[in-house]
Write a structure and sequence with these properties.
CATH class of the largest domain in chain A: Alpha Beta
CATH topology of the largest domain in chain A: Nucleoside Triphosphate Pyrophosphohydrolase
Largest sheet of chain A: 7 strands, mixed
Distance between the termini of chain A: 42 Å
Shape of chain A: elongated
Radius of gyration of chain A: 19 Å
Oligomer: homodimer
Order of helices and strands of chain A: EEEEHEEHEHEHHEE
Largest interface: A-B, 24 and 24 residues
CATH superfamily of the largest domain in chain A: Nucleoside Triphosphate Pyrophosphohydrolase
Number of strands of chain A: 10
DNA sequence: ACAATAGTGTCTCTTAGACAATATCGA
DNA sequence: TCGATATTGTCTAAGAGACACTATTGT
């Protein structure tokens, strides 16, 4: 019967730090794999969680101190072998969060590990991380996803760098700006520029209102572009 | 605890019939919604199913008499409200199957319903169907997915028609052939052509070996229902 | 003025679609 | 031969990338 199934949620929290993509790991505080670094996750609490997405948001809130990031379902990983306790099922999500948010979360237990350099993790978490990277990279080339790795405001050269870090290759500047223009998801902040350096300052941009993810976790699944 | 969670698998079985996309529905033989048309699906059996994909394949085999179709995970739908019995979770898959295979399966209970014309189904099955259609159409424009709706052999004009039915709009013939050529997933069958009509016969093609999925029907008589 | 980076104009090359010419069947 | 559809050739338009030019800051 289905009562034997271990139902959990895991989150691949991706962020930028030192110009490279990192995944957030936490030491597990229960067996199995107590003390070992793993993805933030845990059992679904039917009494507490509206659905699995709410459960994922709870994991991020409780374990990483992060609220309302870009959060999207990645897939469900299941089977007899992945958890030593028995037949289990993990509904996995990935989240994109600006580096500053993670650093400000003040959860000292968080370890930011190079996302491409994950060799082994407990359960099938390494496989989940790889699936998340594949998904994010596939979607990045034609969508607005990477903006969620930036802060509230950013310049176009900064945003381009984020795309380049994700995709792992340089992007044509003119094409990039054309694409951003077509997507119509950004708006310049009137009068705001990033100055301070000995060169021409760059215009600051922000996400247009309807694409911003604030404290409402209700509307989901929409990916502009 | 997680033991309260109802874990099931549902399958959106898509096929072509009468030049339009259909979804396979079955009358439920248990409460809730006994006798109502719904997606083929059921509880995960941890003792029997290697993982959720195996469970989905089992549903197709037992309930629709179809083996080894194109099968891909769609997503997991969850929450308190979707099943009157309590907090539930459905790992959903979609399958693409040639029309002939469905017709030959000889499961009289199967109803082929116009896929775009699904207004209400039990649980959140209508939402699941809509998600499947979105996914299939998104992937169809740049991938080889639709070939799995064709039989073992087909002509390029036939395949183009399948793409056009899926996408709902005519495709440029030259572009279509160029794209198929670039994808390098098809091979002409030497000497085989689709003749019989009063016009030039079309070359028959098949999927190249490495892309083929063995499509077969289950032996009749095995029907644990 | 100079160094350095932001932002733009334009050219070329690649690719997608329109159009039409040619090919091959049964009647 | 004719009617019908398959297949291919080629022209044109749209889009992506390369390149270089202009713009604006601090020193």
């Amino acid at each position: 019967m289905s009562s034997k199934i271990i139902c959990s949620v895991d989150v691949v929290l991706l962020t930028l730090s030192n110009s490279s993509l990192k995944v957030a790991l936490l030491e597990r505080d229960h067996d199995p794999f107590r003390g070992v670094l793993a993805l933030p996750g845990g059992f679904i609490h039917p009494d507490e969680d509206q659905d699995t997405e709410a459960a994922a948001a709870r994991m991020l809130r409780d374990k990483a101190g992060i609220q309302s990031p870009y959060l999207e379902q990645l897939g469900t990983f299941s089977g007899r072998g992945r958890d030593p306790r028995g037949w289990s099922l993990s509904v996995s999500y990935y989240a994109l969060v600006p580096g500053a948010v993670v650093q400000a979360s003040e959860r000292p237990g968080i370890v930011l590990h190079p996302a491409d350099d994950v060799d082994w993790l407990p359960f099938d978490h390494a496989q989940i991380v790889r699936a998340a990277l594949t998904r994010v990279r596939d979607k990045s080339s034609y969508s607005s996803l990477p903006v969620y790795l930036c802060g509230d405001t950013f310049t176009l050269p900064e945003l381009q760098t984020v795309y380049e870090i994700l995709l792992g290759e340089p992007i044509n500047k003119v094409s990039f700006r054309r694409k951003m223009d077509e997507l119509e998801i950004l708006e310049p902040i009137p009068g705001a520029q990033k100055a301070g350096k000995a060169h021409r300052p760059a215009q600051l941009y922000r996400l247009r209102k309807q694409f911003r993810r604030k404290l409402s976790l209700t509307d989901r699944g929409i990916n502009p572009g």
